[in-house]
Amino acid sequence: MPTPNDAASAGEPSAWPRIAASAAIFRDREVLLVKRAKGALAGLWSLPGGHIEPGEKARAAALREVREETHIEADLLRLVDVHEVILDGTGGDLAAHYLIVVFCGRWVAGTPITGSDAADARFVRLEDLDTLPLTDNAAALVRRAWDLLQTAA
């Protein structure tokens, strides 16, 4: 994820908040996770996702990010939530503020291969979620997404 300076250098009048999209992709009782390679969340596991490009729909952005970060093809079925992330920097300054449109869906094809800004990518059994260092609320979002998919026909 970019830093406030990235947005400022791009000529944007205000660096934050930014809009992003992510997806909880399930294969049987496993969820696709990525280990962040850079930024404030480096080393933490989370759902694949990233910025929504200008003119890009949120659903398309989520699918693009899944492909870019993991090389997995997926089918998105439901909207899970709009998740808000606010990170404080040094001295109490705002480091990041994201609104993340979170979808859920099912694996279609592919084996996780690390790409884009991920350090690792893999399917993780739902029972093993708590064994990984996850971003805030990632486990809760995964469980909500799983529950939603169980009710989708």
Question: Describe it for me?
Answer:
There is one protein chain. The protein is an alpha+beta fold. The protein has one domain: Nucleoside Triphosphate Pyrophosphohydrolase, CATH 3.90.79. Strands 1, 2, 3, 4, 5, 6 and 7 form a 7-stranded mixed sheet that branches. The chain is globular, with a radius of gyration of 15 Å.
The low-confidence runs, each spanning 5 or more residues with pLDDT under 50, are: 1-13
User: Taking all residues together, what is the mean pLDDT?
Assistant: 89
- The total strand number stands at 7
From N to C, what is the helix and strand string? HEEEEHEEEH
The largest β sheet comes out as: 7 strands, mixed
Shape-level CATH architecture = Alpha-Beta Complex
**Radius of gyration based on Cα positions:** 15 Å
Total helical elements:
3
CATH class: Alpha Beta
CATH homologous superfamily annotation: Nucleoside Triphosphate Pyrophosphohydrolase
The helix/strand class is alpha+beta
Q: What is the CA-CA span between the terminal residues?
A: 34 Å
- Percent of residues in β-strands: 35-45%
Query: What is the CATH topology descriptor?
Result: Nucleoside Triphosphate Pyrophosphohydrolase
How does the overall form come out from the CA principal axes? globular
Task: Work out the count of structural domains.
Answer: 1
Overall helicity: 10-25%
